[in-house]
Structures are given as C-alpha cells and as structure tokens.
Specification:
Chain A contains 9 helices and 22 strands. Chain A has about 375 residues and is an alpha+beta fold. Chain A is globular, with a radius of gyration of 20 Å. Chain B has helices spanning about 15-25, 50-55, 65-70, 90, 95-100, 110-115, and strands at about 35-40, 45-50, 105. Classes of the chains: A alpha+beta (about 375), B mainly alpha (about 120). Chain B: It comes from Parapedobacter pyrenivorans.
Chain lengths: ~375, ~120
C-alpha cells in the first residue's frame, strides 16, 4: 500500500460536479484528492475484506451480549430507548450499512479497528461512485478497485424490501448540508433501483399527529431511513414519540445500532475478545500500564474532542464540545504514514458483507472533518 | 467475495436532480412568469417556491398545504410568523386551509443540528 502521484486533470472539479459531487472542496481547500492515490495489492484487499467481515461478526456478537446481560451502563442511552433497542434487535429490524475505521501497520501486516461508524456513516457517495469514476478516468483498463458498493446497496435494498413496513420508504437528513443530502439521495437512488417507492423529507419537517409520524403531505411514515444520529433523535422533543408510536415506524439504521456507534462498544469488544488481532485494547478506566493511548468521548463526531497521549504525555488533541457522557481509553495504534500525511482506511460493510474501501488522510494522526479523501486502485 | 468492482453504474436520482437544477437556472430569465418566494422566519433568506405553487395550487386562491405550512408553522423562541404564545387555532381561526396545516406538530426533530451547524452530521 503506497501513495502514487498523477498529473492533475485541470478539469477535475467540473468532472466531479458532472456526476453530482458538489462538496469536493471546503473553504478553498480540496477535500477530494484527484492527483494522488493509494495503490494496494490484491493481498491487502483480501486482508481488509476478511478483517471487515470478521469485525462485523464480533460486533453482532457484542450486541447480543449487551442485550442478554443488560450491559447498558456507561452507554448513556436514555432508559426509555432500551425497550425499543431490544425490540429492534429481537425483530431483526433491517440495517443497511456501516463503516469501520481501520489502522494499517504495513510492516506487521496488521489491521486494527479504531472505531465503527455504525449509525450515520458518510463518504458513501465518494467511495461508491466518485472514486469509481475517478478510476475509469485515469485508469480506463486493466485496473481494479475494492469497490462493489453500488451493486451491494441495490442488492441489499432488494433483500430488505419485503420486510419494510408500508408502501413507501422515507429518507431523511438535516437541512442545509449538501454532504448529507448527497449521501441520502445516493442511498435513495439505489433503493429506487431496487424497486422501492421512496420520498425525501428533512428531519426537521417530520410531523407528529398523536397517532404516528407523518411527512409534509400528512402521509404516515411507516419506514424511514435517517442520516441523523440516534442519540440526537432520542433527546429531542419528538424522541419519546419514537417509542410510543402506534405505527411502530421502522427506523433504518435500527435503534440497536446505538450500541455499536457508541465508543463504549470498544471496551466491551476487548472484554469479549481480548487480544483479538483486529482489536485495540480499550478500557472504561485507564489502567496504569497503558502508556500510549487515545482518550475518546463515547459520543462524538468527526474526530472532535479527542486527546492522544504518548508516555502519558499529551501529544495531540482536537477541539470539540463532546465528552459530557464520558470517555473510553484506547491503546494507541500505529497509523499508515506517507509524505502526504497519516491515513485511515474506511471499510464498508453493506448487507452483511465487506464491499469497499476509502482512505482518509490528515496532517496529524487524528481523522477529522478536514481530512482528505484519497481514491485507490488495486495493483495487479 | 465481493471485492472487485463492476461494470457500468447507473444513477437515476442524483442525475435527474442536477438536470432539474440546470433547468431551474435557465428559467429564471423568463420575466413574464409569476414567481413565488417565501421565507420561514424573519432571519431567513427567501426561497423560491414557484414550482410547488404552480404545480399544486388550487383554483380557490389559497395555495397548497406546503405554503400554508411554511407561512404559519410554529417556530420556537418567538421567531417566525407565529410564535408559541399563540394557540394554533388562534391563527387558523375558521380557515379550514390554515387549520389543515396544523394537523401535525412539526419541528420536534432537528434541533441538535440547528444548534451546532456543520457541513455534515454524519460520522
């Protein structure tokens, strides 16, 4: 796995915009990298594929364990949501996707799970579509990419379709965010191609009648995909209606994902599978022997409010308003480093199967909303 | 193993959204066309809602549910056309069109995002 350079296409921005990708640049700084890329080997792609499927299975086992043993302490989930979480798990409510963030140590050939974005993962559109078009532009022949996201999404919606409630699947996100809207519209696109009837509604516009949630045309919402964090839904004014909803609307991702999107899952995974080759040691309280570690809020987004320690000395930290609910302590991982920066692998699980990767690169060893997206190819 | 990628990708929705955006810009040059702009509260920018209005307005000069909702929805903190100190019925009165816009409460989700605007609320 290594960075390779390209001669930049002067038309890269209009080329991306022509396929519907409008957030390639933030405040004049490119988020999308067009003129360099990662080249990985077939063996590395196989390693990521296998590790991702294995981690997904560990996560499912951990959810089963938490629910069975009622290990909800430290998750800071509102108590009224627990029965909803348990019901969504017992009913096997459909989940569509998630993204593991992995650290790769090339020298040791080790992949370690940094965290699991199980509830509201983004960068799906750039991973599934934009980097595929990028590959076809620069490498039109005889080159592959670890990327079957598009087909896997359509196939997963096709499998889920018979289990959806109602005739329409609503799709929702917050207003005024092009990135989230693009991700949601891409998902809705793939659902349409699977033959599902869909409607878009901003989360702010969801209505409550006393007899259920409705869209702007007062049509009952029976199934809804939301790109909006569960912990926010639960604490907002309509949160309690989710559990009192007479229609028992089906939420995707389901509420049991609250257990996996919370960093408290990391110490539980380590407790259940100590020394697993793809896990980092993680704890609720920092043990005395842990000298190099990262302190992460259990609920945080985009790398905010993180502190990194080496020999128990703070070496990096990010600003943020998170941490009120508590922290976990995770063994410091070695990130892949090139002259251009530190990289984390985003590995997607869609419909129970690993199906694509992305790379996010940063100047410091913490991935944030400013981190760059780097496309990749598989070297043959 | 689903490692290797496809083939030819087809996008139905995003491509059509872009196409409609292009048409929208082209249409702005038509001076004779009636255009409708609304805003949700006194601090917000005006948004063109001509398409909603043109597609669905009734012959009774009342506009549709979307327009009534935009015009009379309750926004917390006293902002907007109506504030929480007034009962919805006091605003709707005997107007059935206005009353219909109040059949559902809205705005009960989304506050967390509105209070800390970001480019994405994903992870």
């Amino acid at each position: 796995m290594q960075i390779k350079k390209l001669r930049i296409d002067p038309q890269w921005q209009p080329r991306l915009e022509s396929i519907g990708y409008g957030y390639h640049t933030t405040d004049g700084i490119p988020y999308w990298i067009d003129d360099y890329y990662y080249e990985i080997s077939n063996r590395e792609a196989d390693l990521i594929y296998k590790a991702t499927n294995e981690l997904w299975q560990l996560c499912l086992d951990a959810v089963e364990f938490i629910i069975k043993k009622r290990r909800y302490a430290h998750f800071h989930i509102p108590p009224f949501m627990i029965p909803h979480i348990e019901r969504s798990w017992e009913q096997d409510d459909p989940a569509i996707y998630g993204r593991f963030d992995l650290a790769y140590d090339k020298d040791r050939g080790e992949l370690k799970m940094l965290e699991f974005n199980a509830d509201t993962p983004t960068s799906l559109f750039e991973t599934g579509i934009v980097q595929w078009y990028w590959k076809n532009h620069y490498f039109p022949e005889l080159t592959d990419q670890f990327n079957s996201i598009h087909e896997q999404l359509i196939q997963s919606w096709t499998v889920i379709k018979p289990y959806l409630k109602g005739s329409t699947l609503h799709f929702s996100c917050a207003k005024e965010t092009l990135e989230d809207l693009t991700n949601v519209e891409y998902l809705r696109d793939t659902a349409l191609q699977a033959g599902i009837q869909t409607k878009l509604i901003y989360v702010d516009d969801i209505g409550w009648t006393g007899n259920g949630f409705v869209d702007l045309e007062d049509t009952p919402i029976r199934s809804i995909f939301k790109l909006y964090p569960w912990e926010w839904l639960a604490r907002e004014e309509f949160g309690k209606h989710i559990v009192n909803d007479p229609n028992r609307a089906q939420w995707i991702e389901p509420s049991w994902k609250m257990l996996l999107s919370n960093k408290m899952i990391l110490p539980i995974l380590w407790e259940l599978f100590p020394n697993h080759p793809h896990l980092l040691a993680s704890y609720v309280e920092r043990p005395a022997h842990l000298n190099h570690f990262v302190k992460k809020p259990i609920l945080a987004r985009e790398g905010a409010s993180i502190a990194m320690y080496y020999d128990k000395q703070l070496i990096y930290h990010t600003e943020g308003e998170y941490g009120e609910e508590g922290y976990i302590y995770q063994e410091l991982a070695k990130l892949h480093r090139e002259a251009t920066g530190f990289s984390v692998i985003g590995s997607w699980i869609i419909g129970q199967e690993s199906c694509g990767i992305s790379f996010r690169e940063s100047d410091m060893p913490i991935t944030t909303d400013k981190s760059r997206f780097i496309p990749h190819i598989i070297r043959h | 193993m689903r490692k290797a990628a496809a083939k030819s990708l087809q996008l139905v929705l995003i491509t059509s959204v872009l196409a409609s955006c292009a048409q929208h810009q082209a249409r702005q040059g038509n001076e004779g066309e009636q255009r409708v702009f609304m805003r949700a509260d006194s601090t917000a920018a005006y948004t063109e809602v001509t398409d909603h209005y043109a597609q669905e307005r009734s012959g009774m000069g009342m506009g549709n549910a979307f327009l009534w909702y935009m015009a009379f929805r309750h926004l917390g903190g006293g902002f907007g056309y109506a504030n929480n100190s007034l009962h919805p019925q006091s605003i709707a009165g005997t107007n059935a069109g206005k009353a219909a816009a109040y059949q559902a409460q809205r705005g009960g989700f989304g506050r967390s995002a509105a209070s800390a605007p970001r480019s994405s609320y994903g992870s």
